[in-house]
Structure formats: C-alpha cells, structure tokens
# Entry
Amino acid sequence: QVELVESGGGLVQPGGSLRLSCAASGFIFSNYIMGWYRQAPGKEREMVAGITAAGDSTNYANFAKGRFTISRDNFKNMVYLQMNALEPEDTALYYCHAWPDFWGQGIQVTVSS
# Structure
C-alpha cells in the first residue's frame, strides 16, 4: 500500500520558518522524482520544488527560490521542505508528490500574525 504522509505544518508568524517532512512507503522511493506542491484557497495547485531520484538536482518555483530548500534521504524514504522567511502568501495546503504517480493528503501551512 502506497503512502505519502506529510508532517510539520502549522501556524507560523510572517518571517518564520517551518520544515515539512514526507514519509514514503509502499513503493521504491529511490526510483522516484519527488516534489512539493501547494494549493491555496480558490487557486490551482502549483509546484513548489522538485528533486531528482538521486537527490543530485533540484528545481524551484520562482516564489520559492532563496527561501525554500527541498532535500531527501533515500535511506529513510523521506523528503523535506525547509521553508524560511514565510509570508502570508505562502498559506496553503502543501502536498508531497512522487512524480507522476502518488500524492500525499496534504498538510496545512498558515502564515499569519
């Protein structure tokens, strides 16, 4: 049974940081490109960051560059998203994605004072 379980979300003040984690199971994690996506209310889901299967290359949406960092641990079957300098516009449901097949259920990130 495939599972992608996100954790680490919550409420944070503007300028703060959060680290999202995604625990993967039920598939060969090290074979998959992994990504983080987000969806704000009333908006389409958008890519935040992606990382190759080996973890040797990453890409980011423009809004994430310089603030967010994606990483993975293929021994632990984990992918992470370190988010710094958070802004209210970053408020959204954040999803873990094993491209192209699997999605997590999403975790809420709220940036508010």
The CA atoms of residues 43 and 92 lie 9 Å apart. The chain has a mean pLDDT of 97. The chain is about 0% helix and 50% strand. The longest strand covers residues 18-25.
